[in-house]
What does this fold into?
Amino acid sequence: MKILKEPLEFQWDSANREKIWKKHQITSGECEESFFDYRKKIAKDTLHSDKEERYILLGATKNNKILFIVFTIRSNNVRVISARPINKKERKLYA
It folds into this structure.
């Protein structure tokens, strides 16, 4: 699925950034890195796209931390909604 144009620009909500760090110790930089993973997987999040189109990304950081990221596109910017480490089931999808 090709939904992202290169180069990417990111738009961050400070509360989401803080929540992701406090809950999962994932930085905004790590989230952004995963969008440039050549093996990333992106799918539409059909369960949570009622108000706006949302997507799920499985991608690795430069340090091989594999993340599950929910994001949307607003004004041609990527806006991360949530991020966490992937679970065992998702690891199989990424591989």
User: Anything to note?
Assistant: The mean pLDDT is 90. The two ends are 17 Å apart (CA to CA). The chain has three helices and five strands. The helical segments are 14-24, 28-34, 88-94.
